[in-house]
Specification:
The structure is a homodimer. In chain A, helix 7 (107-119) crosses helix 8 (121-149) and helix 8 crosses helix 9 (155-183). The first copy, chain A, is built from 10 helices and no strands. Helix content of chain A is 75%, strand content 0%. The A-B interface holds A 86-89, 121-122, 124-126, 128-133, 135-136, 160-161, 163-168, 170-172, 174-175, 179, 197-198, 200-202, 204-207 and B 86-89, 121-122, 124-126, 128-133, 135-136, 160-161, 163-168, 170-172, 174-175, 179, 197-198, 200-202, 204-207. The structure holds a DNA duplex.
Chain lengths: 207, 207
DNA sequence: TGCATCATTGCAGACTCTGCACTTTCGCCT
DNA sequence: AGGCGAAAGTGCAGAGTCTGCAATGATGCA
């Protein structure tokens, strides 16, 4: 993790370096003073970029705290998911995990972020909000798979099921990634964390 | 629904009337022009209150679109949940539903809101964000119940379980309330909707 | 009716965010 | 090397959100 980046030009390396510098500065400030006592100007001064550039990078004040948005899922992965059979929840969890791991998250920043989220729960909300933008897309993908898997189901019911699947998965995923991050002795696979969380969800829902 | 409010003084009635007027105006404008082409000033002009008052009521621009925050849960209900046994997910779903129904939601506004949410998924995100503020509290309540119910579990595991329960429930609840709203021929109980959604979650998670 | 209290309002100002024009930097090609 | 075209960073102006404070107005109650 946080190694083996597909290096290309100086331009991209500069961008990556800057991004981390800004994210780190933002997180430190927010941890020290609380999110709403931090201004974008403070972050910019601490990380030595112009406010205009800050917004070019992150779009919103909280952007640097939440981290850059993930790259969109690969079409190939989506198709594989739609055509696969078995547990839909498990499949979707893996689909998302693939994109997550591919983004090569920086562990140190992750841990700071987690500490901050514990201090300020509203941020967790914003995180959800950002993901929620993609929920619709995700829901449609799940619907496609459900249609293929159970063609006999009524459309309304299928839509509701898809929404439920997405709700459960987007709820469970952050916990899986957290478990993964905690367990990461050497190079534990995120699959284990997913399996574990999924088992727990089953147990919870059952009793 | 939207009857039998515990009426008190003129003051409160005025406030309620105003709130609805503003919410309705905001929703109409947002449906017509899209959320980010609507300004607070526009909403205020349409509903004839001052911007300052708008913010006193709703706090944020989106406040009127999301509706006033729910009243906090009653301590008695919380205690009953903690001491109850059986399905934790089911119990929590009912706990939240109780608060929801008690807030006496206005059906017409609800339907507009739903239409708007379909148009602008980011709003659904903000909805989640607002609820997320309460997630921590909810998580602690669930932990208390889990402690009572399964004292042998390790604390870490229990914390993760609690988070999962909250994730599943907060994901499933909006769908239950939507089902309820759709099915509402006469005075169907929200319990039915909950049971149905819960059954569906079980099925989804299982396969 | 008259007073105490609470709600609404106007105003000033801080902060977030965007469009546009300008400058700098980078990648590439001769 | 040197220079050109494209991409990225910056400054500025301005719209829009949101808050504190002080003043005004409405309500509840004696």
């Amino acid at each position: 993790m946080s190694s083996s980046a597909p290096v290309t030009g100086l331009r991209e390396r500069n961008r990556a370096r800057r991004t981390r510098r800004v994210e780190r500065a933002a997180l430190e400030l927010a941890l020290a003073h609380g999110v709403d006592h931090v201004t974008v100007d403070m972050i910019c001064e601490a990380s030595d970029i112009s406010p205009r550039t800050y917004f070019n990078y992150f779009g919103t004040k909280e952007g640097a705290l939440l981290g850059l948005a993930q790259a969109p899922l690969l079409d190939a992965d989506i198709e594989a998911f739609v055509e696969a059979r078995g547990s839909v929840v498990d499949g979707l969890l893996h689909l998302i995990a693939t994109g997550f791991v591919a983004s090569d998250p920086d562990r140190e920043i992750f841990l700071m972020r987690r500490r901050l989220f514990a201090q300020e729960p509203e941020l967790q909300g914003l995180q959800l909000a950002r993901v929620a933008g993609k929920r619709q897309a995700l829901t449609r993908i799940v619907e496609r798979r459900l249609t293929a898997q159970h063609p006999e189901t009524a459309p309304t019911e299928r839509a509701e099921e898809a929404q439920l699947v997405v709700a459960v998965v987007t709820g469970a995923f952050p916990i899986a990634s957290r478990v993964w991050l905690d367990r990461e002795d050497a190079d534990a696979s995120i699959d284990e964390a997913i399996a574990m969380v999924l088992a727990r969800v089953r147990r919870i829902v059952q009793m």
